[in-house]
Write a structure and sequence with these properties.
Number of domains: 1
Shape: globular
Radius of gyration: 17 Å
Strand order of the largest sheet: 1-2-3-4-5-6-7-8
CATH superfamily: Aldolase class I
CATH class: Alpha Beta
Length: about 250
Amino acid sequence: MTQNHLRLGVNIDHVATVRNARGGAYPDPIRAAKLAEEAGADGITAHLREDRRHITDADIDGLMEALTVPLNFEMAATEEMQKIALRHKPHAVCIVPEKREERTTEGGLEVAREENRLAHYIAPLRDAGCRVSIFIAADQKQIEAAHRIGAEVIELHTGAYCDFHAEGKFAERDRELKALREMSAFAHSLGLEVHAGHGLTYDTVQPVAAFPEVRELNIGHFLIGEAIFRGLVPAVQEMRRLMDEARG
């Protein structure tokens, strides 16, 4: 794998959302993860929410046992989630903001205001060998705080950029893309590994994939939706193709 290779992490949360709508055993998120792996995913992302609205504890158990690619374990900065992460010791943990009333993650983590708490929170995770990522907005203050607390990775929230594109607000979209580009370069200059994700589609992925500092994109909801029409393997393969094309 070349240094220029842009990794694709496939988030399988919403396979579990469909399963949980009926309370049964299918579709199976672990089967989806294996198919994504077969299609060229470099890793699997799963968010174990406090309310267990999609991924469950049993799913995390199964993923840790079944995967041959790394698991990126998304979680809120709570004592319960820290204990689960320390038990499993996944390749990576991504600390995300979480509110019970939200439909999906609504922005980046506020690191600067909680710097001391988060520094102490992530220390045991790092000591256990997990790569710690912080999911944040493209904001210099938050990136600097993530660097100070000892995070190795940041994941930039691309949701606003994607929303503006979908709404046809192209001036706002381009302004957000410029901020993402500049903050990717800034984070890289601090020695942070840069990831990005949230809301990316076939139409929006390439400008972000072209940023040379970005090492990984995490994409889920769109791919699970697209899989309804073309199948999960072809859906992931097309995203992989577009990413590689953008990377040149």
